[in-house]
Structure prediction request, 490 residues.
Amino acid sequence: MSTCPYSERFLQIVWNERLLCARPHCQDGAALRVLSGGLWNRGSGPDFLGAALLLGERLVRGDVELHRRASEWFSHGHDQDPAYRKVVLHVVWEDDLEGRGGTGLPTLVLGGQLLASWEGFLQQVEAAYYPHAREIPPGGCALQWALAEDGQLREILATAGLARFQRHGRSLLQRGLEAGLEQSLYERVMEAMGYSANREGFLRLAQGLPLEHLRSLAQGDKERLVALLLGAAGLLPDPTLAAPLPSLRPWLRQAWKTWWQSGLPRLPIPWKPGGRPLNNPFRRTVAAALWLHRCQCHPWSWLLRLARENQGHPQALLKALMAPLPEAPPWDGCRDMRHALPQPAALLGEDRRRDITQNVLLPLLVARAEEENDPPLQELARQAWARLPRLQENHLLRQAVSRFLNPPSRWRELLPGAPQQQGMMDIFQNFCLALDHCCGECPFQIPIPAEGPRPVPGGGGGGASRSRLPGMPGEPQAARGESGSPRPGG
Prediction:
């Protein structure tokens, strides 16, 4: 069997571009039909997430992993990695395990099962410059998005965003009924401090160090709060093993004394220190302590008080909720206990404060107001939410934009604020992800105005795969319904 002359990156492009022959089959003889190849995963884990495949007559949903050789499933350690448990198809160039105990997964061998034009395509595409826009192809509903007016789409997105906002608030409130509003709000704010990499770690910290116990130990003292949280998180370094920054030495001695006297256990939290230096778990834990000090370890009482003080003034409420933490030397001048920053930086930046306000504070406030039948408070929280500017982009939003919009740069007009951003992610999750991108099964539709559609944008920002949308001239007629109107898609 010959050695694969192509990189794994090229094989991923082949799968993403659907360059398979008309009737591919797996090694066990089962015919393969790709309903959805899944979303290209740029992070850790399988190469494509959420695929929908027909293996013979059996519909399977899950992830797809690609390798040059089948044996790389074992040499890369995927057989021992829980992240790969949802893989339903192993795509390889050559099956060097044939007859020698394979992976146990349905296996598709690409060699000999590709379109005749595939080599010509790869000659035109440099893997390193494969357009990001092509990695997530337009969905079956992309034509509907292209034909609809901007104002109509902004209204649809804001409505979907409001539904997501209210649903999120009810979920937060349910947790509050179980653990108490103060503890629940503490847990959710702590979780938000962790970004994607350390959300679970911060949640474990909040659950392992309950707010009521932390409050009694800290006694309202800011530096005790910082020491107790860092100690419980396992982020107080041993000065006998490695010297801390000179600016932190006096404080660290007192912090260790506070920590040992508290009798608190060190929680086994697997922190992930990678990523941006400003998002280091040490800095985020200090920020959490300062935020708790601001609200005197009564976050729900603090939130309700701010709402009452700013009744009828949603913009003022937003300003109060997103106010920056006070300057905090020496902590704001370091990445962790041993590494200084080039210059001091806020422990909790504006984007993160805005995110906590959007995803935690306002949803819980509006849900509680609804439960207590308090229309003025409910309206205040909704109006404050409606005024939130755009939040930070994330991977989910970028996927949704690539799936729906042609050109993707149209997001600037359609997403003026947080409500529209949240709405786009809500539609993407509830249709595209929920249905594994099976556009033929998707009920989502955008009504086209009677006076006629907007002009279809031509070119710009979409790459070669964006030059023509599903259902437009040159595409198979199956992309349209019987009446010629766009078929529902996601």
Q: What stands out?
A: The CA atoms of residues 368 and 374 lie 8 Å apart. Residues 150-179 form the longest helix (30 residues). The radius of gyration is 26 Å. Strands lie at 32-36, 39-40, 48-55, 58-69, 87-94, 107-109.
